[in-house]
Amino acid sequence: MTGRNLKYGDITCGYAPWIAQQLNKVTSILYTAVVKGKVALPCDISPPSADDGVALILWYKDEAPSPIYTLDARQGTLEQARQSAVSTLDHRAYFNMINRPAFLQLDPVQEEDAGEYRCRVDFHKARTVNTVITLKVIVPPTEPVIYDDERRKVKGIIGPYNEGEKLKLLCESDGGMFLDGNNTTHEAVEIFI
């Protein structure tokens, strides 16, 4: 990839596309939450200079063109800012500006909350700052149910079984999603006594 010089009157500007590509890269932070739990997605809203302040905070999810959460301080101070969330987050999302870094709290977390979040902070004077967070959501499996080899539910003490006899039990649990994206499965286990 090569750069080139652009001339504007008496001013010559160098352009190097590989530098522009490096500037656009944003590191993603990985967060994990459990369904029905809560999570705080961080966003640094500290202005770069003392004479600047936050004008607008927009939260985006995945590739959605519209923000899922907005905090608008363009008409006043940050403390007077208007906050609004999309209906899917209604009453589950709260933007905490007291802590540093500030954070968007989701409570309770739902399975469909998994994805990539981007917090965009527009300042009155300084350039826009973006924070990208990838949220993985763990879905716990249901309570396991144990069956014997004739598909009868078993609980507590089972048996009696003779020594050396094969014991085959099946443990089943519905649902569940692990960090690696795999669903829970069930399998038969043979136990020898």
Automatic annotation (TrEMBL):
<dbReference type="Pfam" id="PF07686">
    <property type="entry name" value="V-set"/>
</dbReference>
<dbReference type="InterPro" id="IPR003599">
    <property type="entry name" value="Ig_sub"/>
</dbReference>
<dbReference type="InterPro" id="IPR013106">
    <property type="entry name" value="Ig_V-set"/>
</dbReference>
<feature type="domain" description="Ig-like">
    <location>
        <begin position="17"/>
        <end position="130"/>
    </location>
</feature>
<dbReference type="InterPro" id="IPR036179">
    <property type="entry name" value="Ig-like_dom_sf"/>
</dbReference>
<dbReference type="InterPro" id="IPR007110">
    <property type="entry name" value="Ig-like_dom"/>
</dbReference>
<dbReference type="InterPro" id="IPR013783">
    <property type="entry name" value="Ig-like_fold"/>
</dbReference>
<protein>
    <recommendedName>
        <fullName>Ig-like domain-containing protein</fullName>
    </recommendedName>
</protein>
